[in-house]
User: Fold this.
Amino acid sequence: MSSSRISKVVVTPVAFADPPLLNVVGVHQPWALRAIVELHTDTGLVGLGETYADETHLARLDAVAQALPGSDPYDANALRRLVVDVLGKETGGAGASFGGMLDVSSAVDTVYSPFEVACLDLVGRETGRPVSDLLGGAVRDRVPFSGYLFYKWAGHPGSADGGPDDDWGEALNPDQIVAQAKRMVEGWGFGSLKLKGGVFHPDEECAAIEALRDAFPDLPLRLDPNGAWTPETSVKVAERLAGVVEYLEDPTPGIDGMAQVAARTDVPLATNMCVIAFEHLKPAIAADAVQIVLSDHHLWGGLRRSALLGGITDTFGMGLSMHSNSHLGVSLAAMVQLAAATPNLTYACDTHYPWKTQDVVRSGVLDFDDGSVAVPTGPGLGVELDRDLLGELHEQYLSCGVRRREDTVYMRSIEPGFTPNTSRW
Ligand SMILES: O=C([O-])C(=O)C[C@H](O)[C@@H](O)C(=O)[O-]
Ligand SMILES: [Mg+2]
Assistant:
C-alpha cells in the first residue's frame, strides 16, 4: 500500500500556435489551448495530465485542484467521488461544451480525466511500471496513427493577434490535399489517412478521397465530415466511396440519422460525435447505428474508463479507433499508453500532433517512425515536462487573448455570413 499523498496540484493553461484548419463549424483559431495538470506528492513525485483549457473547464479543474491535496493517488474511486462532489457544488451537475462539436451532458468525465491520468502517472512512477502495465499490460510495442489531413488556408488572415504562419501552405482542392498527404506520409510514415471533411460540397470531398486513392493505392482512407450531410446524401457518398474508404466517420448527426444510413450501406460507420458517453452505447447498439467507436480518454473519463469502453465495443463486435483534438505531448503519451494496452484497437489512432510546432514535454521520447510511436517502457506515462517550454506556452496563453475554442466565431470574423455546415448537404 502506497504511503504517498497528493500534496500540491498545479493546473497551467497553455497556448500553442495552430494552423487555420477548416472544419464543419469554421476554422481553428491561431492559438489552441490546453491545460497541463501536475499532481505533486509528499514523496517528491510529479504526475502529469493534459486536457482542454476553455475557461469554464479551467474553472472546474481549479475547483477540483483545490480539493485534491491529501488524496491517495491509488484511489481512483475516491477521486471520482471528489470530482462529482466538487462539480455538484460548483455547477449543479451542468454539462460542458467544447468548441461547438462536442457537447457533454455532464462535466464529470472531462474534468476527472486529467486527474486520473496524472494519478496513473504517479502510481507508475512510484512502482516503476509504465501506465500500460497498470491498464492490463501492453499488447503491442508500437501504436499506429493515421495521417490527419485538413483543408486549410495558407495562413491566418491578417489577424492582429494571429500566430505565425505555418509552412504547410494552402489545401483547398484534391491536388493540394494529395500534396499535404505526401508530406505526412514522407515525414511521419503514416500507413493510413483521414481527411477532415464537412468543408466543401460532398462531391468535392469525394474527389479528394479518390485522388488520395490514386496517389496511395495501398493506404486505408477515412473521411469525416462531422455530420455535414443528410442521411440521404450520406448514403450516396457511401455508394460512391464503397471499397475506397475503410470507414465513413459521422457522415450525419445523431444516432437516428446514423442508423438510417447504416441500414442502407455496408460501408462501416464510425463516430466520435453521437456516441461520446456510456449512456449513448445502448441506443446506438440497439439501432446498429455505428460499427466503430472512436475512444478519447479526455472525453470518456480517463484511461481506465476508455479501457472499459474498449471492452464493451469488443463484447458487441464493434470496431475501435481513437479520436483526437489539437494536443501536446502529455496527451500523446497517455493515448499511446492506452492504445498499447487495448487488445481490440482495430484501427490506427487519430492524432493532430504533426500540426503543432511547440510542446511542453522533452523531445526524443514520442517520435513517429513508420506512422507509429514506440510505447515508452519507463515508469508512468514516460514523458517529462520541460519547464522552460511550459513557461513559454503559458506566457503565450496569457498574451494570446483566446480563452475558449470558438471555430465559428473566428470564422465569422473572416467570413461574416458563415453558418456551420451541419446537415447542410
Ligand atoms: O474526428 C473528429 O471529429 C475531430 O478530430 C474533431 C476535431 O475537432 C477536428 O474536427 C478539428 O480539429 O477541427
Ligand atoms: Mg470525427
